[in-house]
Amino acid sequence: MLRSLYAYKGTHARTLGFRVGEKFLEIGTSRDPNWLHVISERGTIGYVPKNYIGPEEATAVDMLEFIDGCIEATHLNASERGGTYSRGEHDALHKLVELRQKWHIQCPPALHPSKRHAPPPPQRATSQLSVDSVSSQGSLPSPSLPGTPRLPSLPPSGSSSSLGVPSAASKEGGGSVVETTTSFIGRGDSLVRDESSGSSEGHDTSIGYESELRSDVDSGIQASIRSLVSQVPAGYLRSLVEEIRSSTSVSYATSHQVVEIILKSLGTTLPALYPLCTHILASKEDHDGSSENNWRDSGDGVRLAGLLERLRECKDDEQQRSWALHEDEHTISSHLTNLLDLLNNGDLVACRSVLALDDFRPLLTLVQYYQMETRWPLRKLLLQVFGAVCQMSAANISYLSASVFPVELAREMVDSTCPEERLQYISLVFGMVLCMGDTLPYTYFSVMDEKFMSLLLYGIEEYHENPDTEQLGDLYLTLVLAFNLQYPTLPPPALTQLQATEPPLDNGLPNGTEETGRAEKDNQMENLVMKLLAQRQDTKYLTEKLLLLFNREEDPLAMFEHEPRPLHSVLKMMRDMYATQATASIFYTNDERVVCDIVIRQLTDLPSDDSRRSDYLYLLAGLVGAGGWGEHRHRREEVIRCCTNILAEERDTQTLNKDHHLVGAIMDAHPEFFSEE
Known about the structure:
By secondary structure, this protein is mostly helical. It is 58% helix and 3% strand. Keywords: SH3 domain.
């Protein structure tokens, strides 16, 4: 038991105000240790500040009496609201019952609080008040509460018919005794019955009668709810969402959220409807795991299929594609605009299913149409559509990266007549297609060759000089990082002997044909990005932007939340650049000091079971072996401390064994830097 030490005025809806000396009982836990979740002696539930409350010594009898008072006050508060209990009151009553049982065991039987004698069972020989008769009155009785003021007994003249069918005299008076009785019960008052025979005079039979009546009513309500649950049609949740969306023109996700909020609020406010609302919300899981053909039950799926079919017909119109006719531009533009709106705001599950039909044939149609279309306004809309497609799923990105679409985008970027606005759209969508690190077909690199890569590296430096085109320079850097993911991570020179035994980085990709294809391609290709960087003299903006992203641990390719996650492109770029002296020399001495600071911070902060720590150890090996760290030896003592701390850890996991091996190899390869002076 708790007692208030000071007065407090509650300033929030969930806090309680109190005076000095009020008693409370803790009934739950609080996320904030400075607040306590309590119930007061008045039956109110909320949070009180911990520093305003102190413990109160109480015997087992005092605890039982206080708990009983809280239970009665909670029931009384609910009866004043018409018998409705909130979710917090339900939980509080369960907790109070548990506490009462606990203290009841600790209290000696002789000291148990006195209880009222149970009344004898009601005499129902004369008449019976059924659930139907109560329902016909328009309200349900509330359970009787101990300590409630007792109403005077009904006069004997009316008692003989008080629970039966109304007499003619009562009908003429404009009301029945049943109505009067129901109104008394509805106010939570006790009714004292007085039989005409006088055999039960002086006995209170209303409590047992009302509890039985309440039980019958609750059973009838539960049976009605179960009947309603069985009558809910399949897909009713989707129907509700479709109704809201068609009436308000908001997105499918927003409409779905509105329906969920309404159903949860109904289930919380009206506990009797909780099973029904839960049953309707449970159909969301069935919808998420639906089969491919369930898109036919969705209005968005049907509309998307119709739009794609009309676009296919436009693509197959050879006359429009072969001649410079533009009469269909408005029609196609309307189709593409509706398609874009549907992909952004429609049912995501249904749209995914439609796009994946016939091995992603709808996506193939869009790619072919993009190849054939020459009008920039329509190509611009198509690029926006492809961006929305990439945002929907990783499967769409994998299909687009394996199609001819990347080649078409690369050819368009190489075109010297391409304006800057068009380059921004193309490079943005190109980065989306490559952001998951999917392996490109080997033949595509005949187009994405040294000329194309030099164009990207040159554009990074050129476009960053002008604030109006700085965004285009950032998009080019994103493409360089994406293309660098197509090549294997290069080992630092100090650890060349570990290249054969180095385990692959955890990029979440499954072992299978994709990894096999990547390995075959790697045997035939060198890292074109590193090759061209080693030949360049001006990389000022490239290194500045890389260090900024590296310090913030940001990855421009992390555009979506799709799984599996690819490699961190910036970390891989830094490792590759410090794999050879030609690319490591690009960084200035001050830049290299910053890199050293970041590596020390990560080696200190990352836990031992984090696989990223191995990546930073590889980078440290490159910094020492290929970089200029040996000349300035920036923060040498802290570097040595990080290495010795790793060696002192227990080798209980594969990651720790790998880190031990890396640190040992670094120190063995450069004893002049790590030996004690």
